Amino acid sequence: MNIFGICATIVGGFLGAAVVKRFQIYGSLAFCGVAHAISNLMFVVLAYAGNDLTMFYASVAVENVTGGMSTAAFFVYLSRVCRLDLAATQFALLTSLWSLSTPMASVSGWIVDGLSGNWVLFFLITVVAALPGIFLIGLLPRYGLGNDGAIDPISRRGVKAK
User: I need a labelling partner for 6 at 20 to 30 A (CA). Which of 56, 71, 119, 142 fits?
Assistant: First the structure.
């Protein structure tokens, strides 16, 4: 299962790169964010399907592909929001903030226990919980990017956004 999930995430990363190329930064963040939130509905389907290995693999595939897509879009955004002269520090801090969500996942079992074992309700709540973040993506264009992603061919240094 680990190899399957890793491969699905890598495929998602490539798909995410294609989405970034097609929809630019903000559009790709929104598209991939919505796709990743909706992917949790696959676990609702899995909960109804019960002990169905095919549905389990499908749920994991959709979750990992959309996770790879949203990670690719987010890392492109982070790469562009950082000022080039401070990129290493800013990137490290921003990715650290991003990883703060990991401990939240560890309490999911307790949340499901509090919901009397209702996995369907839990995964529906996760979809709703993603909505504020998706809404905030719409506010991002108000803030400038730290660089325009171009490299000066002479100095090989990044060119600042105007």
Answer: 119
Residue keyed to tokens 């389990």? 56
Angle at 27 between CA 24 and CA 30, to 5 degrees: 140
What Rg value do the Cα atoms of the chain yield, rounded? 18
The full length of the chain comes to 162
Ordered alpha helix ranges (H), 87-160: 87-98, 102-105, 108-114, 119-137
Task: Say if pTM beats, i.e. exceeds, 0.90.
Answer: no
Give the per-residue pLDDT at 162. 47
Residue 127's pLDDT band (cuts 50, 70, 90): very high
Q: Which tokens is 43 given?
A: 């676990």
Structural domain range at position 144: 2-160
Structurally, the chain folds into a number of domains equal to 1
